[in-house]
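Late entry, evening session. Most of the bench is empty. Finally got around to the prediction I had been postponing all week. Sequence below, unchanged from the version circulated by S.P.
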Amino acid sequence: MSYIVIDEERCKGCGLCTIGCPRKLVTLSQKPNSLGYTVAIFNNPEQCIGCCLCAEMCPDVAITVFKENRP
C-alpha cells in the first residue's frame, strides 16, 4: 500500500498537488500552518496508488511518497 506524507511547514497551499492527484486524495485543509498558509492534507490513504503525481507537482518539495506498508 502506498501513502504520502505532507510536510506542513513547507507547504504553502498552492493547490497544485490537488490537481495532480488522479484520485483526488489530496485536498486543502481549513487549518493554517505556523506561517499562515492553508496546507494540503491527505485523505483516504487506502486508495493511494503511489503514482507520485502530487509530489511531482509540488514546487516546495513538501510531499514524500512511500510505496510500502505504513509502519
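Two things to note before I forget:
Strands lie at 2-6, 26-32, 38-42, 63-67.
Residues 2-67 form a domain with the Alpha-Beta Plaits fold (CATH 3.30.70.20).
Will write this up properly tomorrow.
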